[in-house]
Specification:
CATH topology: Rossmann fold
Number of domains: 1
Helix content: 25-40%
Shape: globular
Number of helices: 7
Largest sheet: 6 strands, mixed
Strand content: 25-35%
CATH superfamily: P-loop containing nucleotide triphosphate hydrolases
Structural class: alpha/beta
Distance between the termini: 19 Å
CATH architecture: 3-Layer(aba) Sandwich
CATH class: Alpha Beta
Radius of gyration: 17 Å
Length: 227
Amino acid sequence: MILVEARELVKDYTTNGLTVHALRGISLTMEQGEFSAIAGPSGSGKSTLLHLVGCLDVPTAGTIRIEETDISTLSRKELAFLRRRKIGFIFQAYNLIPVLTALENVSFPLTLLGVDRKEARRMALEALASVGLEGMGNRKPKEMSGGQQQRVAIARALVKKPSLVLADEPTANLDSQTGREILELMLSLNRSLGTTFLFSTHDRMVMEYARRLVHLRDGLVEREERR
């Protein structure tokens, strides 16, 4: 099943009268269950592409379909709902809410979806257990290591059972051993749950784990590798 279909994506940014061509006509198709990465040097357009697929930004030209829905036809409210329901995000800075516990951080997306509080707690506890953090739900981010915080972020991304998880440089703030543990965890979740993962990265270790690697340069697809 085709999960994401991007066609001729163009993204331009204009700052102080200067136009930057971040994407220059990229086409990409992703099937459900992929474990893929977008790689390239700084400025190649990988984060821009991830943000467009995640409905965090809109293209200057081109189309994106997610589960056959052309997102350009959606209102801002509909886009927000699609993000909340269908897409999970994992960021290099974790983006956890510091005043909330791990359990509260993970259950927060469910609250936005209107899930009953008791059910949200049950689902959040289950998600924390799935990433190896059973019994740590009452800890706040400052009481956890970087690897543990990233595990909370993964649990938060997965708790609503999204079709697609987007991870922007997920190992950037982790040492190599912790980064490998996080990648092994995500690969295990990909295999057991069938969740589709798409990374943007310049980390060689992430590239080694990806079963499909899309190389970008200057806003264009340079080449692809499949393993």
